[in-house]
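2024-03-11 09:14:02 INFO receiving multi-entity request
2024-03-11 09:14:02 INFO entity count = two
2024-03-11 09:14:03 INFO echoing inputs for audit
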Amino acid sequence: MSAVADKAKEFAKLDVQVLACSTDSRFVHKIWQEQELSKMVEGGFPFPMLSDAGGRIGAVYGVFDEEAGVDVRGRFIIDPDGIVQAIEILTPPVGRKVAESVRQLQAFQHVRKTKGAEACPAGWEPGKPTLKVGPDLVGKVWTVWKPNE
Amino acid sequence: MVDNKPEGCVSPAAGPLVAGAGRESGSPPSNAQGKEERRMNVSVGKEAPDFEAAAFHAGGFKNVRLSSFRGKWVLLCFYPGDFTFV
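2024-03-11 09:21:47 INFO inference complete, emitting structure
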């Protein structure tokens, strides 16, 4: 979560609301913030830290591990209409690359801005060419995009 | 967003607000959770299931509801627990 906090400015720039959620109580969240997160990142974790008591929310989102009694690392990008656009779920020992969430958010925001007229190819980052999707592009992606550029 | 109530040891939050679970927004949380709500109900391109959770934010406690952020992009991150290593 400290890695997410570290990118707080970027999420703010993209007007993204971050929510963290674990099975810990709000009291534990408070002490974690005060005792550890605020020492890892200036200002600590600036977004709401949700308590998923009993894993009921996690179960609906497919991230609750019933044997361990915890929510595993699951990350969901939800658009302004409340539609899930991206899901990433990892087992506990490997952390996320938060920059990838930022990149995906930028890509989904771009697609939304163009109302779906443009698509973001693999590895797309802001400033790189997008694909103008339509019948004319069929079989001709190679003329406008290469995977190693 | 739900207003703050006097702080006690336990502050119930509605949890998942799954359609058909028989609880409308604002109705009191029930202990009788339907089995259905425990199934994964999320896929890309589909609506994110709404929920209400107790939360810590900006030094205080409040209940947070996912649908209160309609109109904004949301990054929802589950993680295994506070004070864990990764």
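2024-03-11 09:21:48 INFO post-check: The two ends of chain A are 32 Å apart (CA to CA).
2024-03-11 09:21:48 INFO post-check: Chain A is about 35% helix and 20% strand.
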